[in-house]
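Figure 3 (text version): structure tokens given as input.
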């Protein structure tokens, strides 16, 4: 290609410069909004269908009943599901203010939700978006959602280490950390190693690991380890990650999720819901304890 062929026209240059300006302005809005949120935690796994979204929703509910102000951002642009786990229908919308900012929808037990799933007209809307479009959708959702003051923002990521994960890590300043979710299969090790390498590369600390679908308790109290036993706990020890806890398999979880009921509210006395309360306590003690230590050490980070 000749050097002439590679040159961009004045008009193209203007369009690119204008686009860069818009992106910078949105980035500024994100920084301002994120300043009002104390802890920003992404929930991650390298494998699909391990219950990330269910874990995100339940941990958010457990943090809310533990007295924290909580929001959840659904960053799974292809298959947003967080709104449904809180009983909110697809296409419900997010109220907009005259200045164009959007208010997250509050769902019981007091969790604020922002998701493309609320903005899309119907469940069947196909989202065949390439990297740059996914990035701008997430950037706009972050720039224009008015969370107000929050203690925790949990971010539900799609599986893997692709555009959404990179975008979130690059757009959100001072991420508190990531929580890894796994099931106790042989794949766990590879999953955790990938997750660890990714968070290291992005300089985001790992807060801990949660094992979902750990076991099934029969009505006669015998326990069956359907996918294997103790893998996440072993990995946590080996790689020096905090083991946050395990969630049993409970068919009522899938039923509640499918019906748009919030499992944590419908079955507060279940083993799974009690486990989430304990996990929330651990997360609180790790992240709030850490920031207290930093404050006491006179660090100016917040
Ligand atoms: N502990 C559990 N016991 C029984 N069913 C569960 C449990 N955890 C999750 N499920 C069910 O497993 C399915 C997958 O869960 P979920 O959608 O939360 O996974 P995910 O990791 O977010 O999936 P994706 O990779 O598609 O985003 C859902 O039907 C959910 O109801
Ligand atoms: Mg999901």
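Below: residues designed for each position.
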């Amino acid at each position: 290609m000749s050097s002439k062929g590679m040159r961009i026209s004045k008009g193209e240059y203007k369009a690119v410069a204008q686009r860069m300006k818009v992106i910078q302005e949105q980035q500024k809005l994100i920084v301002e909004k994120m300043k009002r949120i104390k802890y920003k935690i992404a929930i991650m796994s390298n494998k699909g269908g391990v219950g990330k979204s269910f874990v995100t929703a339940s941990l958010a509910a457990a943090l809310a009943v533990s007295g924290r102000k909580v929001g959840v951002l659904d960053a799974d642009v292809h298959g947003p599901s967080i709104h449904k786990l809180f009983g909110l229908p697809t296409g419900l919308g997010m109220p907009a203010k005259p200045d164009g900012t959007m208010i997250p929808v509050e769902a019981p037990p007091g969790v604020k939700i922002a998701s493309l799933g609320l903005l899309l007209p119907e469940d069947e809307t196909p989202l065949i978006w390439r990297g740059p479009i996914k990035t701008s959708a997430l950037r706009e959702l972050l720039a224009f959602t008015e969370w107000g003051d929050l203690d925790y923002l949990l971010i539900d990521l799609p599986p893997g280490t692709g555009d959404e994960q990179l975008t979130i890590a690059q757009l959100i300043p001072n991420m508190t950390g990531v929580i890894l979710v796994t099931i106790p299969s042989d794949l766990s090790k590879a999953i955790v190693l990938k997750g660890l390498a990714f968070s290291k590369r992005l300089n985001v600390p790992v807060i801990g690991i949660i094992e979902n679908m750990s076991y099934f308790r029969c009505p006669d109290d015998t326990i069956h380890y359907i996918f294997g036993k103790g893998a996440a706990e072993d990995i946590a020890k080996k790689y020096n990650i905090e083991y946050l806890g395990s969630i049993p398999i409970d068919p009522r979880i899938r039923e509640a999720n499918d019906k748009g009921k919030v499992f944590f509210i419908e079955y507060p006395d279940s083993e799974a819901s009690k486990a989430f309360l304990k996990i929330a306590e651990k997360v609180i003690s790790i992240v709030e304890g850490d920031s207290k230590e930093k404050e006491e050490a006179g660090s100016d980070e917040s």
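The mean pLDDT is 87.
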